[in-house]
Amino acid sequence: MLLRHTPKEITERSALTINPAKTCQPIGAMYAALGIHGCLPHSHGSQGCCAYHRSALTRHYKEPIAAATSSFTEGASVFGGQANLLQAIQNIFTVYEPDVIAVHTTCLSETIGDDLNQIRDKAQKEGKIPEGKHVIGANTPSYVGSHVTGFSNMVKAMAAAFATRTGHKNGKVNVIPGWVEPSDMEEIKRLAAMVGVPIILFPDTSGVLNAPLTGEYKMFPDGGVTVPELISSGDSLGTLALGEWCSADAARWLDANCKVPCMILDMPFGLKATDRFIDALRTVGGVSVPEEVMKERGQMVDFISDMHQYFYHKKVALAGDPDQLIAMVEFLVTLDMIPAYVVTGTPGKAFERRIKELTKDVPYECQVKAKGDMFLLHQWIKNDPVDLLIGNTYLKYIARDEDIPLLRWGFPILDRVGHQYFPTAGYKGGLRLLEKMLDLFLSRRDRDDPEQTFELVY
Ligand code: SF4
């Protein structure tokens, strides 16, 4: 019993988080920056922060994560990190030759008050940024927000640093996918290609964090959105931002500054959210949806109708990030399942309102908490159990203690693989989610059913 001290009685807590359902801002900024081709993320803080952020991403993606650090010691902590960052910029361009250095701050450099724009300008004036190379920056103080906020801040920084409006439309649609797996980004590109809409996807970690093993080491893998594409995003026909928390800030920036109109959609997980994404692509791109896409959709609908009995009224507890959870909760409601408890560590009352709205017709009062933690989720479960847990690897402690199956989905997944390669976005990805859930439910019956009801075929 790993979490045996979790009490059933729920008391009001305002200044204590136990088993947080989030991690720190720079991890999100680092992940987003890896989605630019030829980019080296740079952590402006102490080595310890950078080591933690890199290892968190490495453990999830099973890939070495290259990132540099300003390596603050006592001097920088007192006098500021300008000298360290200037030296780092020079060293990085000399040794590693990236196209872009994407700097994010940390708690320490934010507390000191280092001004990234001023330091970048100084590096430019001093000739430390070679011709055709770029340094971009995002503020990611980790004592507010979460990894989701850090991701969003870096994506907005990409748009603000590069997007340029020339007045000549490029005939493309910007798609900002939010923090999804590299496999999901691949799937979004595949769907857009099937629909026949040319897109600029940013960030794009496919081909970076799920690149093949070729025997040849590349400091910068082939994948990622290119700098010319980012520059051209200011001339696109429109922007589809997938997820309010991860992607909307960048899309609104493009709308306000480059007059690229934006639509804020949910992430395309599940049937309805994927339908809306395809419909938005169709509308913005001025095309009609081809038969192949309708076929994939039809297969998903067929699976749902064939297997509906196994999903019906199953109760689920979920922990994760707001954009993913919103789409997943809608999907569960579509399946006539009951999203009973929903927790995110990311702040935002709008999240709670959206979940309440999505579950208003569900025959169970859904409990939802933004800026919540897994301790609370566990307490809710102890008071009224569920049939399934959905979330990251940290939920395995609750799964074990309460003997509930766990669908690993979200970030981080530390003890399984596959998320890098097999999407859960789109219709095909939806089929995978359905298969995984069904597998968990039927495996439970195989394990638990008494002999009288144990069947070869359910
Ligand atoms: S919370 Fe702050 S100090 Fe801790 S690792 Fe993250 S950025 Fe560094």
Count of folded domains: 3
CATH-defined superfamily of the largest domain = Nitrogenase molybdenum iron protein domain
Give me the number of helical elements: 17
CATH overall fold name of the largest domain? Rossmann fold
**How many DSSP-defined strands?**
13
Give the CATH class of the largest domain: Alpha Beta
Structural class: alpha/beta
Strand neighbour order, sheet with most strands: 11-10-9-12-13
- Helix fraction, binned, reads 40-55%
Q: What string gives the helices and strands in order?
A: HEHEHHEHHEHEHEHEHEHHEHEHEHEHEH
Ends apart, CA distance between termini = 32 Å
The appropriate CATH architecture of the largest domain is 3-Layer(aba) Sandwich
Cofactors and ligands: iron/sulfur cluster
What is the molecular shape? Answer: globular
Overview of this protein structure:
The protein is an alpha/beta fold and 458 residues long. It has 17 helices and 13 strands. The chain has three domains: 25-161, Nitrogenase molybdenum iron protein domain (Rossmann fold), CATH 3.40.50.1980; 173-289, Nitrogenase molybdenum iron protein domain (Rossmann fold), CATH 3.40.50; 307-448, 3-Layer(aba) Sandwich (Rossmann fold). It has a five-stranded parallel sheet, sandwiched between helices. Strands 2-1-3-4 form a four-stranded parallel sheet, sandwiched between helices. It is globular, with a radius of gyration of 23 Å. The two termini are 32 Å apart. The model has no long low-confidence stretch (mean pLDDT 96). It binds iron/sulfur cluster.
